Amino acid sequence: MPQFAIPLAAIFGFLAVALGAFGAHGLKSQLTPAMLEVYQTGVQYHFFHALALLLLGVLLRQGMNHSGLTAAAWLFSIGIVIFSGSLYALAITEIKILGAITPIGGLLFLAGWLCLAYGSWKAA
Q1: Which of 90, 117, 8, 106 is nearest to 57 (CA)?
Q2: Which DSSP state fits 84?
Q3: pLDDT tens-digit profile, the chain (124 residues)
């Protein structure tokens, strides 16, 4: 993951901006206000964690190698896909069961932040 963290963060950042613009312009008239809010929540967490992944990539490239940091990068990446992806799908399809998947992504984000704390503490 160390060599892939920054490129992956860039791809996730690009997708967050593209999906945010698509939601604001392409979906605004297609979604109910409640579903547009769900979609925007997905975009917001997507972007926050793309930035966190970018930070992790910088730390890893500067030699701050610890398994906790690598784990955090994986957890943020998978969390984006599950958390934000489920919210995007829920907003567009209104299939309510997709909302049951979202907390799994949230737990991955939380675990990622704990791994970041632990890994940065141990690597310092």
Answers
A1: 8
A2: I
A3: 678 999 999 999 999 999 999 999 999 899 999 999 999 999 999 999 999 999 999 999 998 888 999 999 999 999 999 999 999 999 999 999 999 999 999 999 999 999 999 999 988 7
Of all helices (H) and strands (E), which one includes residue 19?
Answer: helix 5-21
Residues written for the chain: 124
d(CA 121, CA 63): 14
Q: Where are the domains of the chain?
A: 5-123
Tell me the C-alpha to C-alpha distance, in Å, between residue 116 and each of 9, 27, 90, 94, 99.
Answer: 16, 35, 29, 34, 27
* C-beta of residue 81 within 8 angstroms of C-beta of residue 39: no
**Among the residues of 62-101, which ranges form H helices?**
67-79, 85-93
CA contacts within 13 A on the Cβ side of 100:
3
